[in-house]
Amino acid sequence: MSSLLASTFVFLLVSLPTDAANSQNIAVCENEGQGKCTDEEAGYDESAMLQVSKMESKNEKSSGTLFFLKHTFRNPDVDSGVYWAAAAALDYTQWYADMHADGFHFHSFFPIDAKGPFYCVWEGAPGKTKADMKNFAKNSDGSLTRNMRNKVMLIPGAVLGGHQPVTPYYGSGFAALTQSSESHSKAAKSGSTLYVVKHTFNNPGPDSQAYWQDIAALNWNQWYIDQVADGFYNHMFLPTDAQGPFYCIWEAAPGKTKRDMKNWLKDDDTSLVKKTGTKNRVKQVEKALLYGHQPVTPYNFS
């Protein structure tokens, strides 16, 4: 395990509250809806720790704030058609320019169904708050989700520590359209499936403490090797608080199903949430709705 990640997890371990009542919930979930960047490709041919080392170097250049958003339509049957029509007609170059003028950068799009929900990863410029992100999503002309319910979750940097789930835009000089344009050629190569997974501790205080203890002792190199051998690959870890919930983006090898993903998380010894009492809500991303956008670089399972 790298020294930066080790120090991060030790810090989290000693700073975790011993009683759930003492926990301060950073990500307040409001307006819960109803209804249904890309990094360089790391094949792990030489070492599964390549991804971890990239995460650390990216984190050193990050000065923005990450948010994970869940978007749901108020009237899915009607509103979803309006959304897709607007998305099809969008000038994406101008869209990026407009969002950057407002102090935000879009990273990844994870649609579960044409009628929602959608999950997105956004980054705010230095100083941007959760309230700013909510206001942008609801009111800005640069937002495609003004007529949707937008649940905004802050991804605290203190919990992420050395892990950086996306290539930072702010402070990195990252080109605005790199993620979108590079992804088009890669989308057709992948026959795998993507999943958005929400992990919630049954007993947040003691269960989260046990989780971070396991993390502190983890052999990360072996963890990546073992998960890939089982046909799964973790792309993003998006914790909303040290006591959860955590969101993760997983990829499964061709032929794997949603049930395979669920069973692996629940029963496999490689799963970090097997022992610590979590509810694992697994939602499959509808890749046909990505239309060339690849929200993560597909892992090469071959």
Q: Can you offer a commentary on this structure?
A:
There is one protein chain. This protein has 302 residues and is an alpha+beta fold. The chain has a domain at 23-51 and 58-182. It contains ten helices and eight strands. A four-stranded antiparallel β-sheet has the order 2-3-1-4. Strand 2 (104-111) and strand 3 form a beta hairpin. The two termini are 26 Å apart. Mean pLDDT is 78; it is low at 1-61 and 173-188.
Enumerate the spans where pLDDT stays under 50 for 5 or more consecutive residues. 1-61, 173-188
Mean pLDDT: 78
Total count of helical runs of at least 4 residues: 10
Structural class: alpha+beta
Which quaternary structure do these chains form? single chain
Write down the Rg: 18 Å
Q: Kindly state the percentage of residues in helix.
A: 25-40%
Q: What string gives the helices and strands in order?
A: HHEHHEEHEHHEHHEEHE
- Using DSSP, what is the number of strands? 8
Task: Output the strand order for the largest sheet.
Answer: 2-3-1-4
Distance between the termini: 26 Å
Sheet having the most strands: 4 strands, antiparallel
Amount of beta strand: 15-25%
